[in-house]
Automatic annotation (TrEMBL):
Organism: Paenibacillus swuensis
Subcellular location: Cell membrane
CDD domains reported in the protein's UniProt record: TM_PBP2
Organism ancestry: Bacteria, Bacillati, Bacillota, Bacilli, Bacillales
Protein name (database record): Glutamine ABC transporter permease
Molecular-function GO terms, alphabetical: transmembrane transporter activity
Family matches, as NCBIfam families: HEQRo_perm_3TM
InterPro entries: AA_ABC_transptr_permease_3TM, ArtM/GltK/GlnP/TcyL/YhdX-like, MetI-like, MetI-like_sf
GO BP terms in the entry: amino acid transport
Length: 215
């Protein structure tokens, strides 16, 4: 183990560049998957004829597929259908679709946890179904979704390491390049990579616990 050779300025700069891309990848995937997941969850909760059953089939299918398969499909399968993405955006598409399916279940479960009596009370007071959903069900349900949602985002951040399979220069990709230069620096590099992942994921975990206490 050679920590001095492992933690040279060049190595650290290269690794932190990869870590920055990992965070950017996770950030975009979190935003897109949250928006798509909320739409899917709300539509499924509302039981819209025809649309909701189709979305249920989509969500259940995606949830039961390996994320790695979706990443490979987005990068190499979609071009066969005439839809091409750069490796970065192929990763975003795969992560977004996969995480949105999981988030939609969190949203649907959160909305279903709201007492049906509140929904009936809203309708009895003259509110439309959409108004009742907007002003009563969603505010209560969203508060209950926050802790599991943050936990899902933590999983998403860790899942970004899988995009190394399509040669995106994120943290694990750059770490593999550095470790390939010298067997003696493998352990120190892995320690640093683990510390970076732990630092950001632990911070999110603490946030999730605090939000859970508040809710």
């Amino acid at each position: 183990m050679d920590f001095q050779s492992a933690y040279t300025p060049d190595h650290l700069s290269f690794l932190f560049q990869g870590f920055g891309l990992t965070l950017w990848l996770a950030f975009l995937a979190i935003i897109f998957s949250f928006l798509l997941g909320c739409v899917l969850g709300i539509v499924r909760y509302a039981k819209v004829p025809v649309v909701s059953p189709i979305l249920t089939i989509f969500v259940e299918t995606v949830r039961n597929l390996p994320l790695l398969l979706l990443i490979l499909f987005a990068r190499f399968g979609l071009p066969e259908l005439g839809i091409s993405f750069t490796p970065f955006w192929a990763a975003i598409v795969a992560l977004t679709v996969f995480e949105a399916a999981l988030i939609s279940e969190i949203v649907r479960s959160g909305l279903n946890s709201v007492d049906k009596g509140l929904l009936e009370a809203g309708r009895s007071s003259g509110l439309t179904y959409v108004q009742t959903l907007k002003h009563i069900v969603l505010p209560i349900g969203l508060r209950r979704m926050v802790p599991p949602m943050v936990s899902q985002f933590i999983s998403l951040l860790k899942d970004t390491s899988l995009v190394v399979i399509i040669s995106i220069a994120e943290l694990m990709h750059n770490a593999n390049i550095v470790m390939g230069q010298d067997p003696d620096i493998v352990f120190p590099i892995l320690i640093l990579v683990a510390a970076l992942y732990f630092a950001i994921n632990y911070t999110l975990s603490v946030l999730a616990r605090r939000l859970e206490v508040r809710v």
